[in-house]
TrEMBL record:
Record lineage: Eukaryota, Fungi, Fungi incertae sedis, Mucoromycota, Mucoromycotina
EC number: 2.1.1.320
Protein family membership: Belongs to the NDUFAF7 family.
Protein name: Protein arginine methyltransferase NDUFAF7
Catalytic activity from the UniProt record: L-arginyl-[protein] + 2 S-adenosyl-L-methionine = N(omega),N(omega)'-dimethyl-L-arginyl-[protein] + 2 S-adenosyl-L-homocysteine + 2 H(+)
Source organism per UniProt: Phycomyces blakesleeanus
């Protein structure tokens, strides 16, 4: 009866338990966890792109640093820690400076000098981004932004989950979440082939520790119901429901499944939108993360499940893996997120607000980044070349 808890699909033990198994609901009442073996890659010295010949030299230097880090953790255990990399760390301080330039330009255009520049960062990293933002303001903006020359005086660390937030923030503020939402918990649903009604997944754990999916009607799950209702309002239809001919054929095939293909829905991300609407009514949102992922498991908006073994990343075909040793992370449909944001936070229809934009990583960096400082001698620019599968939403 050991509780099952896939990383990113958190647990809430159902009262329905038997003598040989326990049922565990894919929960969103606990903050999602990363793999317990993860390390965020953060080079001690910033890369000097202007001195490099091309992006290949950057990759060679990066590989050397990776090998050193992985070698250290491999000495501890064969199943070593996963080494995560983010644009904030790889391209520091320039990526953070680009974020800061965007924030300051928006602030000066609409709120300076009558209101303070207030930034909330929802983060799971090393704090590098906020330090880079403060450094940019100190170096480039001769204005009083809560005395940015003294980081200790203008920064407050709030050790609280955003999903437990209960403080009303009436002031205008920027709300940042960079490379965080890919680890938000999701629910797994399928649709009844005959009725097209949604069913939510639970996981059964037997006496041998084997995992099996089982399904029940969404029923009284108010959160899933709100999400699906809002998604319907913005005109989105799940790809699995659009396969009308295939679903019709399944009905008449012997031994055919009675449920559609799986779909992973971003329940925690939806909760974030509701939190912003309720507690941060004057916010401007900046979110960035993966819009697509290679080697994902089967399903709509399905995650990648992987682990690190003997210096090799090993992808898995299921999220039902041993808790604590695997990293599970999800892509985000940013176009759907934009429309959901407009409905939840602005009360408008899909695409009716030009102030809510979705940009790819390259577009944002071209517009706000210091291209000259991140270009190699051969004219290549790694900050523009990499992270092609990342997007941003700006409001």
């Amino acid at each position: 009866d050991t509780p099952f808890c896939p990383e990113g699909l958190e647990k809430d033990i159902s009262p329905q338990t038997g003598s040989h198994n326990s049922l565990v609901r894919l929960d969103r009442n606990v903050v999602p966890r990363f793999s317990k073996q993860a390390v965020i890659f953060s080079p001690e010295t910033d890369f000097d792109f202007n001195r490099m010949q091309d992006h290949l030299e950057f990759m060679i230097e990066l590989a050397k640093l990776y090998k050193e880090i992985e070698g250290d953790v491999d000495e501890v255990d064969e199943v070593a820690r996963q080494v995560w990399h983010t644009p904030t760390e790889l391209f520091k301080p320039w990526y953070g400076f680009a974020i800061a330039k965007y924030l300051v330009s928006e602030y000066k255009l609409n709120h300076f000098p009558h209101k303070d520049l207030i930034i909330y960062e929802m983060r799971a990293g090393n704090g590098t981004l906020m330090l880079n933002i403060l450094d940019y303001i100190q170096q480039n903006e001769p204005m009083d932004v809560r005395d940015a020359k003294d980081h200790n005086r203008c920064v407050t660390v709030i050790n609280k989950s955003i999903f437990d937030w209960d403080v009303h923030v009436p002031e205008h503020c920027f709300f940042l979440g960079m490379e965080v939402i890919d680890n938000f918990a999701h629910d797994l649903i399928r649709y009844d082939i005959n009725t097209l009604e949604p069913r939510q997944a639970l996981v059964s754990t037997d006496a041998n520790g084997e995992y099996t999916e089982i399904y029940e009607p969404v029923g009284q799950d108010s959160l899933i119901s709100r999400y699906l209702a809002t998604r319907k309002e913005v005109g989105y239809r799940s790809p699995v429901l659009s396969r009308k001919l295939w679903n019709a054929l399944l009905k008449n095939m012997p031994l055919a499944p009675n449920l559609t293909a799986p779909e992973f829905i971003p329940i925690k991300l939806f909760m974030l939108l509701e939190t912003l609407k309720t507690h941060f009514p004057q916010h401007q949102l900046v979110l960035s993360d993966f819009s697509s992922l290679p080697d994902s498991i089967d399903g709509v908006d399905a995650p990648v499940a992987q682990t690190h073994y003997k210096a090799t990343m090993v992808p898995c075909f299921t999220y039902m893996v041993q808790p604590g040793w695997f990293d599970i992370f999800f892509p985000t449909n940013f176009e759907l997120l934009r429309d959901m944001y407009l409905r939840v936070c602005r009360g408008t229809g899909a695409g009716n607000d030009k102030g809510v934009r979705v940009l790819i990583h390259r577009e944002f960096c071209e517009r706000y980044g210091d291209i000259e400082r991140t270009t190699t001698r051969g004219g290549e620019n790694p900050i523009l070349m990499y992270y092609e599968n990342m997007k941003m939403i700006l409001t």
